[in-house]
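Researcher: Going back to the complex we discussed earlier. I've cleaned up the inputs and rechecked each line, so this should be the final set. Can you rerun the prediction on the complete assembly and write out the structure?
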Amino acid sequence: MFSKACEYGIRAMIHIAHKSQIKERVGVKAIAKAIDSPEAFTGKIMQQLSKSGLVQSIKGPHGGFWINDDDRVKINLRQIVEVLDGDQIYVGCGLGLSQCNDSQPCPMHNQFTPVRQALIKIHTETSLDELATKLDGIATLK
Amino acid sequence: MFSKACEYGIRAMIHIAHKSQIKERVGVKAIAKAIDSPEAFTGKIMQQLSKSGLVQSIKGPHGGFWINDDDRVKINLRQIVEVLDGDQIYVGCGLGLSQCNDSQPCPMHNQFTPVRQALIKIHTETSLDELATKLDGIATLK
DNA sequence: AGAATAAAAGATCAGATTATCCTTATATTT
DNA sequence: AAATATAAGGATAATCTGATCTTTTATTCT
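Model: Rerun complete. Updated structure for the full complex:
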């Protein structure tokens, strides 16, 4: 479904959002520990997410990452996925055919389209804030 | 969604099934041409599919690949995917969490599960023969 | 100002995936 | 039997992904 980088990225963003809800910043080391990911690799992923503007960062002592209150409710899963994995899973033919579309459908098109639409709907309608809130008492991110 | 090998594999199987419906065998070269895939790589993929028993093969002049009549209606998409990509996309947590399950759900679990179930359903219920039949006049596999 | 901290950026490495090429085994045709 | 066609198998190359290490830059604290 997602690349490793994307999995770590989503988990990192949920963790940061959760901490941001209680006005805390988190560093790469703490993130990696919380989501059980390789630290240096997580740093690289955070770099991408930071450059995309989905997360804020500041260097130096007591620096780290955070997500603004209004961003948290606006950011959805799809935005995170697109930064790290591109829009590949949201567009194009399920069989990788170049000419496939609604008027020239591949043999899987009509079965595949509604499933993809459901995926897009969920990814678009699920906000980061929602995911972070669910974290309270339900599960860890490991 | 799928690896390149799996995409080529699915397309190859649909093409072979289509030819088998009219009692023809197809060679690697013809398959690669029909589905627009690299020939040698396609040969490797056919090797795996052949070893799995989903497709029959014979060497020598007028050799090639084919799928038995009864196999064609029994084989579903999921079987092909599992041979080439494993069952990864059908099992496990959408965020790659080890402890995630119905009683300890991750924050995405309840959104993700129905989409996965829908995917499993269509992959299991779509037979190769069905896909091959749809190919008549509708689309190419390129 | 200097030391300490932490993210950003760049270089590098390992493994998996994608892809090609060459040889071998097997079947058919002449 | 020899030539030919074709899949199977092995070796290798190229590219992508996952991951680490080192250096640089920005910030804070003393």
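Model: Worth noting: The radius of gyration of chain A is 17 Å.
Researcher: Good, that matches what I expected from the previous run.
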